[in-house]
Amino acid sequence: MSAETGRDLELERCLRECAQEQHRSLQKLYSLTSANLFAVSLRILKDRGQAEDCLQNAYIKIWKHAGGYDVQKAKPMTWMNTIVRNQALDMLRRKRVNEVSDEVLQYVADDSPSHEEQLVLSRSSDSMHRCLAGLPDNHRLCIELAYFDGLTHQEMADQLQYPLGSVKTWVRRGLVRLKECLSGI
Amino acid sequence: MSEWNLSDPDQRSQAAADYVLGLLDKTEKARFEALLAMSHDAQQDVQHWQDHLDILNDQLEPVKPPARVWKKISEATKPASFWSNLRFWQGLGASGFAAAMVLAVTFWITPPGTPGAMDYVYVVQGEGSQTEWIVNASLEKNMVYVEAVKPDELPEGKVCELWLMVAGREPVSLGLLPKQGIHRIPIDPEWREAVENSPLVITLEGMQGAPNGYDMGPVITKGQWTPINKHNSI
């Protein structure tokens, strides 16, 4: 059994027990996943206070809806990441932060986990990361602007000062290349 | 986006990716979600793209949140004692209980009671892009299903009527739109081609509906079917 599979099984068990209102399992789930989910929240909201509120709301949703998690339909981290992302994008839309910045790290330098913790928390293989790194810069940037910043095609075109058609093509081609690469792993 | 052909696997996969990325506009999103409610293929496409794009989350460097976050989560989720539970339910009453029971997480849960494989879908949206009805056509079962989702309030004594606008002929009534539940309308097999190729119109009528297709009331909205299953042919 790979480390990734073992971790997924542990997270699935925690979610099953959360559905049975075993509060200790929520604490375990939090200790295993909060650093990853906080990173997603920070990446989208770019504000530490808002990211903490988002994380708090997301775990309350996870607790309340753990019974709706279907292991056949999604990996546990994908399910939880989606909850955090939806929550963060909702908050972002309500209080739109216009500047798109890649300076998130300035918020996070103080109490990031140890190298060992990060190794345990990271589940993706090098080959998956190579798929992402292999995308042309503009393809990857557009996909990230949609995924993390909630921008529409038009908003991306305005921000990047490129024609709308180019932006649509980059997103589409980027997705095709990503799918082809990930399917080959 | 009338050129959308969601029965084509490549276009459906692209739509699923755009859905996950949040790139669909309100109308496209409503159409795709209607498809998602009943198409296993579309559900799988979305799941695959959620999984593929999760790599974007994966690449982020983990950040340990401060201890105060867990403290707040713990306070909000810790099961209450027996006595506080009892007071909560006494205070809530029957209507509050019912409201609490309808709370459900929406994604990845297929709505119960959805008819089986459908061929076409039309989503009726009210003001504010809220879905009011979902209309499905099953050519295999020769049946049109109209499901009330959240219809807007209508003036007293008024109802909505659904019409199939067959080219060169009197519009065909598919009946009054239900205020709740699912309304089933059998289709004569000879109308199957018309069902596939005709746009739909919704009119505002008196309680009995329009007397015929030439004397219908004011048109509230109109739209096109979105094909779902590519394997069914007429």
Topology:
The complex is a heterodimer of chains A (185) and B (234).
Chain A: H1 3-19, H2 23-45, H3 48-65, H4 76-94, H5 105-108, H6 115-121, H7 126-133, H8 137-149, H9 153-160, H10 164-183
Chain B: H1 9-21, H2 26-36, H3 40-58, H4 67-77, H5 82-101, E1 120-125, E2 131-138, E3 143-148, E4 158-164, E5 172-176, E6 182-186, H6 192-197, E7 200-206, E8 219-223, E9 226-227
Antiparallel strand pairs in B: 1-2, 1-9, 2-3, 3-6, 4-5, 4-7, 7-8
Instruction: Give the largest interface pair and sizes.
Output: A-B, 64 and 43 residues
How would a crystallographer describe the biggest sheet of chain B? 5 strands, antiparallel
What is the CATH class of the largest domain in chain B? Mainly Beta
The coarse silhouette of chain A is globular
First-to-last CA distance of chain A: 18 Å
- Count the domains of chain B: 2
Order of helices and strands of chain A: HHHHHHHHHH
Strand content of chain A: under 5%
Average pLDDT of chain B, rounded to a whole number, is 76
Distance between the termini of chain B: 24 Å
Oligomer: heterodimer
Count of all domains of chain A: 2
What's the CATH architecture of the largest domain in chain B? Sandwich
Strand content of chain B: 15-25%
Transmembrane segments (chain B): 88-109
Domain Anti-sigma K factor RskA C-terminal (chain B): 98-212
Protein name (chain B): Anti-sigma factor
Keywords (chain B): Membrane, Transmembrane, Transmembrane helix
Please explain how this structure is put together.
The complex is a heterodimer of chains A (185) and B (234). With 185 residues, chain A is an all-alpha fold. Chain A folds into 2 domains: 1-123, Rna Polymerase Sigma Factor, Chain: A, CATH 1.10.1740; 124-185, Winged helix-like DNA-binding domain superfamily/Winged helix DNA-binding domain (Arc Repressor Mutant, subunit A, Orthogonal Bundle), CATH 1.10.10. Helix content of chain A is 74%, strand content 0%. Chain A has 10 helices and no strands. Chain A has helices spanning 3-19, 23-45, 48-65, 76-94, 105-108, 115-121, 126-133, 137-149, 153-160, 164-183. In chain A, helix 2 runs antiparallel to helix 3 (48-65), helix 3 (48-65) packs across helix 4 and helix 8 packs across helix 10 (164-183). Chain B has 234 residues and is of the alpha+beta class. Chain B folds into 2 domains: 1-36 and 39-109; 117-227, Immunoglobulin-like, CATH 2.60.40. Helix content of chain B is 34%, strand content 22%. Chain B has helices at 9-21, 26-36, 40-58, 67-77, 82-101, 192-197; strands at 120-125, 131-138, 143-148, 158-164, 172-176, 182-186, 200-206, 219-223, 226-227. In chain B, helix 1 crosses helix 3 (40-58). Mean pLDDT of chain B is 76; it is low at 81-115 and 230-234.
